[in-house]
Amino acid sequence: MTIEPFFISHLTSMHDWNDDRIFQRACVGLARNGHRVELIAMEDDKVPFDSSLSKGVDVKLVPSARGKKRRWYTSKAVVETAIASEAKIFVFHDPDLLPHMKRLRKKRPDATIVYDIHENYAGRFKDWGLPSFLGSIFRRYELQVINKIHGITVVSESMKQLFQSSSTPCEITRNSTDLSRLQDLQFDESRSDKKLIITSGSHSHARHALQTVQALAHLDEKILEGVEMLFAGRYNGSIETEMKDQAQRDARSSFLNLQGMLPWEENFKRIEKGYLGCVFYEDNANNRVGIPNRLFEYMFCGLPVVVSDFPELRKVVESAKCGLIVDSTDPKSIAKAFEFLLLNQDEAKQMGLRGKKAMESEFGYHIDLARLESFLQKIQVTASK
Fold first, then answer.
1. d(CA 2, CA 370)
2. Can you tell me the distance from the alpha carbon of 54 to that of 62, in angstroms, rounded to the nearest whole number?
């Protein structure tokens, strides 16, 4: 099917202008495919806008209010900017924008409106220390808004099921890796002299960082010969100190390496030198329906993966035959998977190769971008009738 070029505006009042899902994948991907793309986001001193990195996207920034005021005033400013836009399709990305959709619909009755749902927000109220019934109230309100717009996009089949009571069209666009962003990236062909067990991203109790370190104590030092456990990224709260203390208590400090953040492309070079990649999360309503970016990043780099036993992670790993599934609350379960992959290097390599091949064929963002384009064209045609 031929996709006719369209003018699309992405709206966010919570995310940085160069957010990976919104800007780097959706906006840049659509612009690369010949569409006119606009991004309306908030100003952020921590992430100053650089026009040289706009990649064909027209980025418009609105002033950001502080604290609780941001949720209303910044969201309102984003929508007011959208009303003045000539775009025919609006995709909004934040629950903060839900209350403003009535005004957008009223002022732009000619426009097609889509809600890109990144997370199971209703399921997170308990995680935020709020009563669960508030999550139920929010979901009912969310569905009321969804039923009056033209489409929604979600990150997985499990998340799609959460909105099956709505007749509003829904499409899945996964949190995958845009391979086109990496086509010119020059990897160092030399491999690390260590077998790197890598966890990349944010590290916290919720991501079972402590259990991952504790797994080292359940591995014989002969198996750990030449092994290094590398955490790369940011550390929440006191977790960095706790991880170091745990390794010291277990006499495993020499195997632990904690590193900080690197630019996105540079981090791929770091991951590519790994032996295996870890994707561990606590069991909650959001994690059961999500697929984290780093799973696909490890797969692209040819690493076998060890993942928590959640439905969407299991689907990918079993489909691609690229890793092992564990109970990540149990350090012994994690250690058992590590031991298998460390002792069976040929099988580990084949898992990594299968994962990489799967990224190039069925799991790369090029698949999701094509889905998104087709979906937007379809609902735009339907909305104009």
1. 11
2. 16
Q: 348 near 305, Cβ under 8 Å?
A: no
User: Is pTM, for the whole model, over 0.90?
Assistant: yes
Are 26 and 6 contacting, i.e. CB atoms less than 8 angstroms apart?
no
What single string gives the DSSP state of each residue in 192-242? PSSEEEEEEEEESGGGTHHHHHHGGGGS-TTTTTTEEEEEEEEE-TTHHHH
Q: Are residues 157 and 277 in the same domain?
A: no
Residues 6+ apart with CB under 8 A from 220: none
Estimate the crossing angle of helix 311-320 against helix 345-358, to 10 degrees. Answer: 100
Q: Residue 276: name the closest of 300, 255, 252, 302 by CA.
A: 302
The DSSP code sequence of 359-382 is: IIIIISHHHHHHHHHHHHHHHHHH
In percent, how much of the chain has pLDDT > 90? 82
- Verify that 71 and 141 share a domain, yes or no: yes
DSSP state of 2: P
Same-domain pairing of 140 and 163? yes
Question: Strands 170-172 and 58-62: what pairing?
Answer: unpaired
Question: Which of the four pLDDT bands, split at 50, 70 and 90, describes residue 108?
Answer: very high
Please name the residue that has the structure tokens 């890598």: 198
12 and 136 part of one domain: yes
The total of structural domains in the chain comes to: 2
